[in-house]
Amino acid sequence: MTDAGVPEPSDQLAGYTIGVTAARRREELGTALERRGARVLYGPAIRIMPLEDDAELLAATQRCLAEPVDIVVATTGIGFRGWLDAAETWDLADPLISALAGATILARGPKARGAVRAGGLRESWSPDSESSAEVLDYVLGHHDVTGARVVVQLHGEPLPDLVDGLRRAGADVIQIPVYRWVPPDDEQPLRRLIDAVAAGGVDALTFTSAPAATNFLRTAMQLGRLDALAEMRERMLVVAVGPVTAAPLEHAAIPAVLPSRARLGALVREVVEQLPGRRSSIVRVGDRTLEVRGHGVLVDGSFVPLTAAGMALMRELSSRPGHVFSREALLKALPSDGADGHALDTAIGRLRSSLGDPDLIATVVKRGYRLALDPV
Question: CB under 8 Å to 119, separation ≥6 — which residues?
C-alpha cells in the first residue's frame, strides 16, 4: 500500500529478480517486493543469536550498575531493546533504567532513538548520518571523557573505531554485546544466491545490516566467486538500508544506493524507482512499446514472462533493434550448448507467440531474424 492507502501497482517490479540477504524481517521485505511483481531469491547471510543467558552480557550490565554511568551510546533499536529485555529476565530492568536515566544518552539513528524512548528514557542527541564516526566526533567535541564511564551498545560486531577513540581520550568504556551475528545454520540458500548473482540472474541485491553485507562478501570470496563481486560492481543494483550497512560494500568498491530514510518501506521504494532505469531496455514501433527486463518483457505495459531461451533471444534482438542477426549468432545466444536450427526456429516461434504479435520479429530470408522495431 502507498502512504495514501492506495494499492501499489503489481507490475512495478515485474520481470525482475531481487536478492534478499536479511535474516530479520526477510519475509516482510520479500513480500513487499513480490507484491510489486518481483521474483525474490532468499539467501540469509547471517543468523542473530540473542544473549539473554550470556555471562558476558550479564557481567557488562552489572558493571553499569556498580558505579554511575556518564554517557550511553545506543547504536541499534533491536540491540537496545534486547538489552532491556535481557535485564528483565535477570530482574535488573528497573535498576538498569535508573542507572541509564542519570547518564547522557546518545542514539545513533531513528531506530535506536525509538528504542530509547520506548524504554522510558530520553536521548540528548542523535546524528543525522547514523555514523559511529559522527558519534565519536560529537562526544569528543562536547564532553571531556577523561575518567568518564561510557557505555557502548554493540550491534553484532565490534566497533573498534568508536571504542578505541573513546579509550584514547581517557574514557572507561563498557561494551554491551547484546547479540551476535553468526553464519546461518544452512548456508545453501546464501550460496545459491551468490551463484545466481555471478550468473547474472539477479537484477538487484538488498542489504539491511552491515554484518549481512560483510558475510555475503566473505562467503563469495571463500567460494571463489569473484565474478559475483564483479557483477555487483558493474551491472547490478545494490541497495543498502543506510550508510552503516553500506560501509562494507563501499570498502569492497561496490557502489550501493541508499534510500532517503533507513526504513524497509523506503528501501523498497528506492528499488522501485531505481531498478527500471538500471536493468531494462525499451524499444518502440509506432504506439507499440517493449520494455525488456530480467526474465520477461512489458508489452505495452503488460508483463509477459519468457523462458530462458526466449529471454536470451529477446536480449540479443533488442540489443540492436532492426539489425539482422544471423541464425549462427542467435544459436550462440541460446542457453543450451547443443541447440540446433530446429531448436532456434522453435524458440523464435514460442517468443513470437508469447509477445502476442508475430510481426514484431521479422524473418529475413537466407539471413536470419530481426526485431522489427525502431529504437527510442
Answer: 80, 81, 84, 97, 100
Distance CA 315, CA 276 (A): 15
Taking the complete model, does pTM exceed 0.85, yes or no? no
At 305-351, the pLDDT tens digits run 999 899 999 989 988 888 999 999 998 888 876 668 888 999 999 99
DSSP reduced 3-state for 316: helix
| DSSP character at residue 125 | B
Cell 531493546 identifies what position? 81
Sign of CA pseudo-dihedral 72, 76, 82, 84:
positive
CA distance 292 to 28: 28
For the chain, domains (ranges, CATH) are: 17-46+184-278 (3.40.50.10090), 49-181 (3.40.50.10090), 281-375 (1.10.10.10)
The string of pLDDT tens digits covering residues 12-59 is 999 999 999 998 789 999 999 999 999 999 999 998 776 655 788 999
Q: Which residues contact 49 (CB under 8 A, 6 or more apart)?
A: 179, 180, 181, 182
